[in-house]
Amino acid sequence: MGLRVLLWGRGVSALGDGLWFTTWALFFTRVLGLPLVAVGVGMAVAGAVGLVAAVPLGGLADRFDPRFVLVAIIVVRALAMVSYLVVDGTWSFLAVTVAFTAPANGGNAVRTALIAGLVPDNAGRVRALAQQRVAQHVGYAIGAGLGAVVLTADSRSAYTAAIVGNAVTFGVLAVTTLLVRKPSAQEGRRAGARAVLGDRPYVAVVSVTSVLTLCWAMMSTGLPLWLSRATDLPLTLGGVVVVVGSVGIAVFQVPFARFARSPAQAARTVVWSGAVLAASCVLLATTAGGSGAVGVAVVVVAALLHVVGELGYVAANWGLSVNLMREESRGAYQGVNEAATATVQLFGPAVFTFALGGFGAAGWVAVAVIFLAAAAPVPALTRWAVRTRQPEPSPPEVVKTTP
C-alpha cells in the first residue's frame, strides 16, 4: 500500500486539525483561563522552535525509515494534544504547546520526503502532493463544521471531546503511515543539515519563493482587518472568501500541478502567481470606504484572483523544492523548505497588521510590490540552481598516436 492509504490518513488527520483550529482560542482563554498575551507568546515561541527543528527532523528521514520518523512525530503531537487536558498554568501551557506545535514543520518535511520515496518521478511527486493538499482541505472543512458545533455548546465537556477527537485522528494517521510500503532507498552520500543549509542556490530559491506565503495571512488577517476598519462592507465577506478558497483548492489544486512539472515551468508559475496576487491586493485597495454591491463584487473578484495565485504558488513551491533537492538528502532539503515557509508565516500576520493598520490602502499596494519583487528573481535563481545540479562535463579523451 502507498499513496492511497496515506491520503486517507491525511484527510482524517486534517479533520482533527480543522476541529482544533476552530476551537483552540476559546479553549485556552475560556476553559484554561489563560491571558491572551500568554497565548500569543506561547504560540510564537512554539513557532520559533519549529523553525529550528524543521531541518534536523527532516534530516532524520534521510538516516532512518521516514515512515517511522513520521509516526514518532505524530505520536509526540498526539500525546501533547491530550496533555492540554491537564494544563494548569502558563508554564505547563508553554511546554505542551512547544511539544505540539514545534514538530509540525518537520513532520511536513518528512511526509514530503516519504512521498518522494514512494513516487520515482518529480511530476508524479508534485501531483501526489497536490492530492494530499486536496484531502487536507476537505478534512479541514469537515473539521471546522464540527468545531462550530463545539463552539455552539461552549462547555468544558465539548472542548474536551474536541481534544480527544483530534488525538484520535493523529492515531489514525499513525496507523495509516505504518501501512505504507517501504519507500525507495536513497542512494549516495547523505548531506548533513549544515551542508544542506550551505546549498546557496537551493536556499535562495525556496527563501525568495516562500515570501509568497504571505497570501495565507492576506486572507486570514489582512482581509478581516480591512473589512472592519476601512470599509462599510459586511464582515461576513471574510467567511465567503474562506469558502471560495476551500472550494477552489479542492477542485483545482491537482490540475494546477501540471504547471510545475519542471524547474523552469515552476519558476514561471511563481512569476505569474506573484503578479496575480499583486493584482488581488490592488483590487482590495480600491475598496477603501466602499460599500454596496459593487464593493462586494470587487472583493469577490480579488478573492478569486487570490485563489488562482495561491494555487499557482503552492504547485510551484512543490515543483521547485522537489526538483532541486538532492535525492540522497530528501528530508533535510524539505526541512529547509518548510523552515523558509514557516518563517514567513510567523511574521505574516504582523506584516498585514502593520501595513493596513498604518498605511491603509497604500499598505495593500506595498504588499503587492512585495509579491512582485519576490517573484521576479525566481527564474534566474532557478537557472543557477539547475546549473549547480548538472554534472561537470568530462574532459575529452586524448588519443595518443605513434609517429
> Any idea how many domains?
2
- Tally of DSSP β-strands: 0
CATH homologous superfamily title of the largest domain: MFS general substrate transporter like domains
The total count of helices amounts to 16
The CATH architecture classification of the largest domain is Up-down Bundle
CATH topology of the largest domain: Growth Hormone, Chain: A
Description:
It is a single chain. The chain is mostly helical and 403 residues long. The chain has two domains: 3-181, Growth Hormone, Chain: A; 200-388, MFS general substrate transporter like domains (Growth Hormone, Chain: A). The protein has 16 helices and no strands. The chain has helices at residues 3-31, 36-63, 66-83, 90-101, 103-118, 122-153, 156-179, 193-197, 200-210, 214-230, 237-256, 263-285, 292-324, 330-359, 361-375, 378-389. Helix 1 packs antiparallel against helix 7, helix 5 crosses helix 14 (330-359) and helix 6 (122-153) packs across helix 13 (292-324). The longest helix is centred in the last third of the chain and has 33 residues, at 292-324. It is globular, with a radius of gyration of 22 Å. The mean pLDDT is 89.
Give short descriptive properties of this protein:
Growth Hormone, Chain: A, 16 helices, single chain, 0% strand, mainly alpha, 403 residues, 2 domains
